[in-house]
Amino acid sequence: MKKLLQTIGSFFASFGTAFVKGDLWVKGSCVIMGLGYAARGQFVKGFLMTALEAVFALYMVLVGVPYLSKFGTLGTVQLERIFNVVTMKNETNDYDNSFLILLFGVISIVIIFAFVAIYMANIKSVYELQLLKEAGKKINTFKEDLKMLLNEKFHITLLFLPVGGILLFTIIPLIIMIAVAFTNYDQLHMPPAALFTWVGLKNFVNLFTTSTTITFGYSFGKVLTWTLIWAFFATFTTYFGGILLAKFLNNPKTKWPKFWRTLFVITIAVPQFVSLLLVRNFFSDQGIVNSICSSIGLTDLLTQLGLVREGLGYIPFLTSPGWAKFMIIVINIWVGVPYQMLIATGVLMNIPSDLMESARIDGANSFQIFVKITMPYMLFVTGPSLITGFINNINNFNVIYLLTQDVFTTMDQKLASSNAKEIDLLVTWLFRLTSEYYNYKMASVVGCVVFVICSVFTLIMFNRMIKGDKEESFQ
């Protein structure tokens, strides 16, 4: 962050120097961006910069200013249908669309910032041309500049499209999502039929409020707790399960290792949503697993132990909160362990054999080698993957939604009033708020919270695990 601030400060300082010390052509470029280039013989660059300035001005006149002028209120004219006695038809007035105002307002702000950055860089570039001319040095032609983009500055050419894609498909949608969190955009304020407007921090306050009318605070605590518990167990059960399975299959005493490995790899080849939907049917209240459990007397035994409610007649694998959470973690182990096994197999094969042999000569047993050598090496190599897996499980939509959708019904009225369920993760709660209840404002708030949690965890863990101070330990 400090280096970034220094870079920004240096950029502004160099712009100030160029503006103050620049000659007439540099100062003229502040009005017509291509003037300085044209004066130095770079006519193509001058034309392109002038054209860019003209396009920006045209966009601001036709799109930017009209939408930005309404950005503060997100529209004031409501949609109305008026019967025209002349045409004998219903006609709509010239109404405001709050979402379009928000969308084009954000896009316009991003475009303004981008244009200002290009504008300042243009002044700096023209000033550098002035310095070259004063020093009697050659000024590159447009063709020579193009060659540089394919040689010395090829990294800029390669980064142009990815950076543009990130800006267009990640940064702008993210800004819009954050902006929606500060509005009252919901089913009652749905454009174009209705307007929505800014409400400040009200939605964030509601997320942490529990009262007779607002239960989001209660639901948020429940959902966040289960999300973190799920992410922990889903990550580490599959991680350590994959390592143990890989150790078992790589053991010389294991018979037919290729056969067993093939069976587990086949589970990866089957699409996950197919597996989850099949498993959901297997473990339904009237499914095959319940039929087997009932026939062998397991259901009656669990009823006597108090694990199944009296008179229920089946095990509520996916319909009771406690059972559903347990089964979701167990099913995820079955789905996730084979993939982790493949990763662990590749890493285990790269552990230095002389390191293992030295440990055996020193008298270490298999358990000690696993704890002191295998696991530290695995954590060193797969640390980033482990962090990524934890973040992915926080946002693991498929497992939770496909196993419980149309199966699990909450009996907790506080959760139900805020459109949540006991088995919901933050991401499935967010999805339910949008797709089923059109509560976009609270969904955006939940999305912001998920983003903050994932960002903070990722930054902390990456800084702790990827320090580069353990490299020599495994050489």
Write up this protein.
With 475 residues, the protein is an all-alpha fold. The protein has two domains: 2-200, no CATH class; 211-283 and 318-474, Orthogonal Bundle (MetI-like fold). The chain has helices at residues 2-21, 24-28, 35-39, 43-68, 98-134, 142-149, 154-180, 202-207, 216-250, 257-269, 272-282, 288-295, 298-304, 321-348, 353-361, 366-394, 397-404, 413-417, 426-435, 440-465, and strands at residues 81-84, 89-92. β1 (81-84) and β2 form a beta hairpin. It is flat and about 90 Å long.
Return the CATH class of the largest domain.
Answer: Mainly Alpha
Query: Which secondary-structure class do the elements indicate?
Result: mainly alpha
**Strand-and-helix sequence, N→C?**
HHHHEEHHHHHHHHHHHHHHHH
Name given to the CATH homologous superfamily of the largest domain: MetI-like
Strand content: under 5%
Helix content: 55-70%
How many strands, what sense, and barrel or not for the largest sheet? 2 strands, antiparallel
Please identify, by name, the CATH architecture of the largest domain: Orthogonal Bundle
Overall 3D shape = flat
Number of strands: 2
The number of helical segments is: 20
- What topology, given as strand order, has the largest sheet? 1-2
Question: What is the typical, i.e. mean, pLDDT?
Answer: 87
